[in-house]
Every structure is written in C-alpha cells, then in structure tokens.
# Entry
Amino acid sequence: MAKGASMRMSAAENRINLLTRQSLRGIHLHLPAAVNQVRSAGAPIDWGQLLADLVNWPYQSGRISRRWLQDFYRITARANRD
# Structure
C-alpha cells in the first residue's frame, strides 16, 4: 500500500476475504471501513464500478467476489514485483 496509513498485507487480505463473504446487509456494514482504509492508503476507487457492484450484489455476489479477489491478488502481485 502507498502513502501514509500502511496496512499489513495479511490484514488487507483478511479484509477482502471478509467482504466477499457478506450478505447485502453485511457488505453495507463492512464496506465503509474498507473504503476508508483504501482511501487512506492513497489507492484509487472506481466509484461507478463500486456502485454497480453494490446494486448487483444480491444477484451476482459470487461473480463480483471473484473479480474483487482477482483484482486484489493481481494488484498486490504487481506491487510486489515493483
């Protein structure tokens, strides 16, 4: 992670795994803290995609979860290479 508030990789991984296992109510409860951590680390957030994901969560949470996890591991692998 970049900038000021660094987050241990294991904590970030635990957070993304927690998010991907949530019901719609759970995602709305846990997402604000996750977004705050991402923003404090200086990482960009695609607000349009996040909104679309939240709208579609009740119907496609499995597909969305897989994409979130794939994105997380792709980004962290790239950061480890650099």
